[in-house]
From TrEMBL:
<protein>
    <recommendedName>
        <fullName>Major facilitator superfamily (MFS) profile domain-containing protein</fullName>
    </recommendedName>
</protein>
<dbReference type="InterPro" id="IPR020846">
    <property type="entry name" value="MFS_dom"/>
</dbReference>
<comment type="similarity">
    <text>Belongs to the major facilitator superfamily. Sodium/anion cotransporter (TC 2.A.1.14) family.</text>
</comment>
<feature type="transmembrane region" description="Helical">
    <location>
        <begin position="143"/>
        <end position="163"/>
    </location>
</feature>
<feature type="domain" description="Major facilitator superfamily (MFS) profile">
    <location>
        <begin position="105"/>
        <end position="483"/>
    </location>
</feature>
<keyword id="KW-0809">Transit peptide</keyword>
<keyword id="KW-0472">Membrane</keyword>
<dbReference type="InterPro" id="IPR044777">
    <property type="entry name" value="SLC17A9-like"/>
</dbReference>
<feature type="transmembrane region" description="Helical">
    <location>
        <begin position="170"/>
        <end position="190"/>
    </location>
</feature>
<dbReference type="GO" id="GO:0005315">
    <property type="term" value="F:phosphate transmembrane transporter activity"/>
</dbReference>
<dbReference type="InterPro" id="IPR050382">
    <property type="entry name" value="MFS_Na/Anion_cotransporter"/>
</dbReference>
<keyword id="KW-0934">Plastid</keyword>
<dbReference type="Pfam" id="PF07690">
    <property type="entry name" value="MFS_1"/>
</dbReference>
<dbReference type="GO" id="GO:0042170">
    <property type="term" value="C:plastid membrane"/>
</dbReference>
<feature type="transmembrane region" description="Helical">
    <location>
        <begin position="103"/>
        <end position="123"/>
    </location>
</feature>
<dbReference type="InterPro" id="IPR011701">
    <property type="entry name" value="MFS"/>
</dbReference>
<dbReference type="InterPro" id="IPR036259">
    <property type="entry name" value="MFS_trans_sf"/>
</dbReference>
Length: 483
């Protein structure tokens, strides 16, 4: 039997094709995946599932070949070994079906955040040719950049409450579709006039504003505590890789097809994601009919109860010092992170005198470093927790790195003369900043699992205030000092 026949053969169907010499039952020849069959035959140390066709295998009355008999004997041997080891043949499934569903949900959230930052940072590159075409000064650019956060402010608390009420699946799906449409409409709005562009940017902020509360709602139900840092680090690294992708591809699209192409192409990707999300995702394990019982038991036994929240004790939440520590930390963290997100390409272009393509490519390095460091920090944090270090201590260690590292490297920018050193300082700053994902961003679910979405909504609500101030402030200062 050829290798091609093994890969593409149909499921065994009728008894006459089974050799009378071996008299194997249907259960013993239950179809399985080829890679596990070969591994079992060659190594003999693992029960493997397999899929086999016997269209080419004749019964004894038709002179069955010795090669076919040996092949059937190999199949029988695997079946017998599976029985000896107590493995239920019904439970043997292909490897892609064994991939944990909770991590599939994490990957979908990762891809949503990838799109989120792709659509957010494309304006940072496109604003350069747009400013030249529409004759915008730095103050106007700052106004446009800040308008996104006006909408972002509006849906923080509402997004968290909505996710707790109707489920994170609907909220995150709505957010992706909404901001994708707003992204695609950006070129049309820009050509109609500045007020129309500001409105579309506000709408885009409304869509992206629900993403983080919805994601936290979903992961708090799907991910066990022991995997929390890694899962959150992976999802947040999607933001950084989104920045990498957006900053890397935007210059190419602008040079090739013009700046409107960036918004049309990036906006259309949201429809692809939404199709998969709608058919495969669920707000909680209890709503997923295809979730394996073993995984459901693991999740339920390891996650805090996340029944729908009817009333939120705002007074009690706001009376707790740890909540205010998170609010202050979140505000300070976003002050530095988002000024780099929105103004880094302009800094490279106007201060370091890189062209459009160079600005986009050099902006990639800090966010690529951030994506790597976020996952490294998540692995370190979960390892420390598993070795017995308290969760509080681990969060403090991670957040200390996330604050002190950027503080040191960003202050060095005022002392360096070389563009290469400036880019290196940016990369080191963002690389250490990513440890915050295993610090303050993981701490919401630690201190109040049931109300984690409400707490993070409060924190994110404070953060866009810093975004608006810094964008307007940076634009105004740039305009003042360059005049």
């Amino acid at each position: 039997m050829s290798a091609r026949a093994l890969f593409y053969s149909p499921i065994l169907q009728s008894p006459p094709y089974i050799s009378a010499r071996n008299k194997l039952s249907r259960a013993e020849l239950r179809p399985r995946g080829l890679p596990r069959l070969l591994l079992g035959v060659l190594s003999g140390d693992r029960v493997c599932s397999f899929r086999v066709s016997v269209r080419d295998v004749k019964s004894e009355s038709y002179n069955v070949s010795e090669k076919s008999v040996k092949f059937e004997e190999a199949l029988k041997d695997i079946a017998l070994r599976s029985e000896d080891l107590g493995v239920d043949s019904e439970s043997l499934v292909p490897w892609w079906e064994e991939f944990p569903k909770r991590w599939f949900i994490v990957v979908l959230c990762f891809s949503a955040f990838l799109l989120c930052n792709m659509d957010r940072v494309n304006m940072s590159i496109a604003i350069l040719p747009m400013s030249a075409e529409f004759n915008w000064n730095p103050a106007t650019v700052g106004l446009i950049q800040s308008s996104f956060f006006w909408g972002y402010l509006l849906t923080q608390i509402a997004g968290g409450i909505w996710a707790d009420t109707v489920g994170g699946k609907a909220v995150l799906g709505f957010g992706v579709v909404w901001w994708s449409i707003a992204t695609a409409l950006t070129p049309v709005a820009a050509k109609l006039g500045l007020p129309f562009l500001l409105v579309v940017r506000v709408f885009m902020g409304i869509g992206e504003g629900v993403a983080m509360p919805a994601m936290n709602n979903i992961l708090s139900k799907w991910v066990p505590v022991a995997e929390r840092s890694r899962s959150l680090a992976l999802v947040y690294s999607g933001m950084y890789l989104g920045s990498v992708t957006g900053l890397a591809f935007s210059p190419f699209l602008i040079h090739r097809f013009g700046w409107p192409s960036v918004f049309y192409s990036f906006g259309s990707l949201g429809t692809v994601w939404f199709t998969v999300w709608l058919s495969k995702a669920h707000s909680s394990p209890a709503e997923d009919p295809q979730l394996r019982p073993a995984e459901k038991k693991l999740i339920v036994s390891s996650c805090a109860s996340k029944e729908p929240v009817k009333t939120i004790p705002w007074g009690l939440i706001l009376s707790k010092p740890p909540v205010w520590a998170l609010i202050v930390s979140h505000f300070c963290h976003n002050w530095g992170t988002f000024i780099l997100l929105t103004w880094m390409p302009t800094y490279y272009n106007q201060v370091l005198h890189f062209n459009l393509t160079e600005s986009g490519l050099f902006c990639v390095l800090p966010w690529l470093t951030m994506a790597f460091s976020a996952n490294l920090g998540g692995w370190i944090a979960d390892t420390l927790v598993s070795k017995g270090l308290s969760v509080t201590t681990v969060r403090k260690i991670m957040q200390s790195i996330g604050f002190l590292g950027p503080a040191f490297f960003l202050t060095q920018l005022s002392h360096v003369d070389s563009p290469a050193m400036a880019v290196l300082c940016m990369a080191c700053s963002q690389g250490t900043d990513a440890f915050s994902q295993s610090g303050l961003y993981s701490n919401h679910q630690d201190i109040a699992p049931r109300y984690s979405v409400s707490i993070i909504s409060i924190n994110i609500l404070r953060a866009p205030g810093s975004h608006c101030i810094l964008c307007l402030n940076a634009g105004g200062k740039t305009c003042y000092f360059s005049s």
